[in-house]
Design a protein that fits this description.
The complex is a heterodimer. By secondary structure, chain A is an alpha/beta fold. In chain A, strands 6-7-8-3-9-10 form a 6-stranded mixed sheet, sandwiched between helices. In chain A, strands 2-1-4-5 form a 4-stranded antiparallel sheet. Chain A has a 4-stranded antiparallel sheet with strand order 12-13-11-14, with no helix packed on it. The two termini of chain A are 14 Å apart. Chain B is mostly helical. Chain B has one domain. Chain B is built from 10 helices and no strands. In chain B, helix 1 crosses helix 2, helix 3 runs antiparallel to helix 5 and helix 3 runs parallel beside helix 6. Classes of the chains: A alpha/beta, B mainly alpha. At the A-B interface, helix 3 and helix 4 of A face helix 1, helix 3 and helix 4 of B.
Chain lengths: 329, 253
């Protein structure tokens, strides 16, 4: 893992260079800080722009500040300092205009067990100041395969249905921005794919989605851009496509027959690294390059008399980047 | 004002009452009927009239007040505590709705419920004892003011409480004794002189006294003092609610 860190440093420099500069961002967070009453600093001067229509994935370990960030934007947590603007409206001063544009699906599944499914979605719409719209609610419940359950109390729903119900509630006022806080934590594969499908459909309708996740796979699947958050700071923001391109680099590990104390001078041009107390050599190469340098390396190894009994190649994934960044922090 | 949102909360809260009709409406009515049977019929027949009003009739305003206060408290405290407990409060707090609107909706729903219960008790009492209401306007005023004030107090308790025990604590250990000792079942003139003085520090005395005056034209303390005390109560509760929302106490970290 250490081997990748120099590259990560380079990637981090791209932090603010990849913003689309065509439109004003639909969500803009500036120097946002949050220190809780117990002194815990959950957000340290965070700045982030979200473009209209994109799917943005926030990755980060538990306690990194993902939920605090979302909660602060949605008005559940009071910021210590900094500004949040939603489509030009200040989230504190113009909270009515700002919040009308936002839908939130929280991480836990808070539901009132005795409320009726259909009523609770209607209630959500009403809270946003909108008149009842039975057609819309019918469509939402059908889209989320909850229509059959509309007259049941919430406690009769399975976990997956509750999650979908929360999505229906969050969409009941037709928000422009949807926050999904860990939408697939602890759900089965089918529901996870359901959720991905929903996000895809919302994107087609122009809804901006910001989701937090532990699953790198999910970010790879859905996101246009990825942000990594750790200890209250954004350590990386990058377009997923560019990030993935950089993942073309591979790591070749040679397990040596005889332990080495140092890399022989004749091999110095290959930038090899000695690992595992001299038991293995690692070599980084770019699969997209014209020449990977592997043939030369193997010839030089043979000349130098370095023998190996096994070899393996690894490709870096978003997960490696994530783990690397978080450890580094 | 986000009227649609207030209406939604109000309707949802009233729907909760319909779902729990036994607990919300029928049980207070039953307990009041029991009070009538015990205090009005069984014991009351041995107690002489109080200033020309039969004991059974005398306790009606006190009983209504007792239910009004306890019902407002429990409805409002539970109404806001339960969403906090389940976490569904997030939806209200992230909606484009002001704190004032949240309070009006929740407190309004809780007060409505207790007023309905109070009216049912009034009608029920009418079957047991002859009732007269000399000052209907004042009666309505004390009725509504008390319901709203105690619903506000309940709302505060529901925000303050962080477990079910605390939720029960204030109504059970503070308000119920104050209501019983506040002259629900007796005129404070019946007390020894020293206790007549002590009892005046009990705020509930003023509420019950004013309310009883609106029925029978007789009171333990003057009407204006009753009204003044009620307003102080109301103002104090409003001030606390204002502080809660200003600081985000227990709602917004």
């Amino acid at each position: 893992m250490r081997v990748w860190l120099p590259y990560l440093a380079v990637w981090s420099n791209h932090l603010h260079s990849n913003r689309l500069k065509l439109m004003a961002p639909i969500l803009s967070v500036r120097d946002l800080e949050k220190t809780y009453d117990d002194g815990f600093q959950a957000l340290k001067s965070m700045s982030l722009d979200i473009e209209e229509g994109e799917v943005f994935a926030l990755l980060g370990p538990n306690g990194a500040g993902k939920t605090t960030l979302i909660s602060t934007i949605c008005g559940l947590v009071r910021p210590t300092s900094g500004t949040i603007t939603v489509a030009g409206f200040d989230a504190l001063k113009d909270y009515r205009a700002a919040r009308k544009l936002i839908g939130l699906v929280p991480q836990e599944m808070p539901t009132a067990p005795f409320e009726i499914v259909g009523d609770t979605v209607a209630l959500s719409r009403g809270l946003f100041g909108l008149p009842p719209n039975e057609k819309l609610i019918e469509r939402l419940l059908k889209d989320l395969t909850l229509w059959e359950k509309r007259d049941n109390p919430i406690m009769a729903l399975s976990g997956g249905m509750k999650r979908r119900l929360l999505v229906a509630k969050a969409l009941s006022h037709e928000p422009k921005i949807l926050f999904l806080d860990e939408p697939t934590a602890g759900v089965d594969v089918e529901l996870r794919h359901d959720m991905w499908r929903i996000v895809g459909e919302l994107k087609e309708r122009g809804v901006t989605t910001i989701l937090t996740t532990h699953y790198i796979e999910e970010a790879e699947e859905m996101a246009d851009r990825v942000g990594v958050i750790n200890k209250g700071e954004l350590v990386l923001v990058e377009k997923k496509a560019e990030l993935m391109q950089k993942l073309g680099r591979k790591l070749l590990t040679l397990h040596l027959t005889d332990r080495l104390t140092a890399v022989p001078d004749t091999l110095s041009k290959h930038n090899l690294m000695l690992e595992n107390e001299g038991e293995s050599l690692t070599y980084i190469y770019d699969t997209h390059a014209d020449r990977t340098g592997i043939t030369t390396l193997l010839t030089d190894l043979s000349t130098a008399g370095v023998r190996f009994h096994d070899l393996q190649t690894d490709q870096s994934s978003l997960e490696d980047i994530f783990v690397g960044l978080v450890k580094q922090g | 004002m986000n009227f649609e949102a207030m209406k939604s909360i109000y309707i949802a809260e009233m729907a909760r009452t319909r779902r729990t009709i036994m607990q919300s409406v029928i049980s207070p009515v039953i307990s009041t009927v029991l009070y009538f049977v015990v205090f009005g019929a069984a014991i009351g027949s041995r107690i002489s009239e109080i200033n020309g009003v039969s004991y059974g009739a005398f306790i009606v305003p006190g009983l209504i007040m007792l239910s009004l206060m306890t019902q407002s408290l429990s409805n409002a405290s539970f109404g806001i505590y339960f969403p906090r407990f389940t976490g569904t409060i997030f939806e209200v707090l992230s909606a484009p709705i002001s704190f004032l609107e949240i309070t009006i909706a929740y407190v309004g729903a809780a007060a409505t419920k207790s007023i309905i219960v109070g009216l049912i008790i009034l009608i029920t009492a009418n079957f047991f004892v002859p009732l007269e209401i000399q000052h209907p306007f004042w009666m309505a005023a004390f009725f509504i003011l008390t319901a709203v004030t105690f619903a506000l107090l309940g709302f505060i308790i529901g925000i303050w409480a962080d477990n079910f025990e605390k939720l029960q604590f204030v109504p059970l250990l503070i308000v119920t004794p104050l209501a019983f000792l506040g002259g629900s079942f007796y005129s404070i003139n019946m007390l020894p002189e020293i206790w007549q003085k002590v009892t005046l520090i009990n705020p509930v005395v003023y509420l019950i006294s004013g309310f009883r005056w609106s029925f029978y034209g007789q009171a333990d303390v003057s009407l204006w003092l009753s009204l003044f005390a009620t307003m102080i109560f109301l103002g104090g509760s409003l001030a606390i609610v204002h502080w809660i929302f200003k600081t985000g106490y227990r709602l917004k970290p």
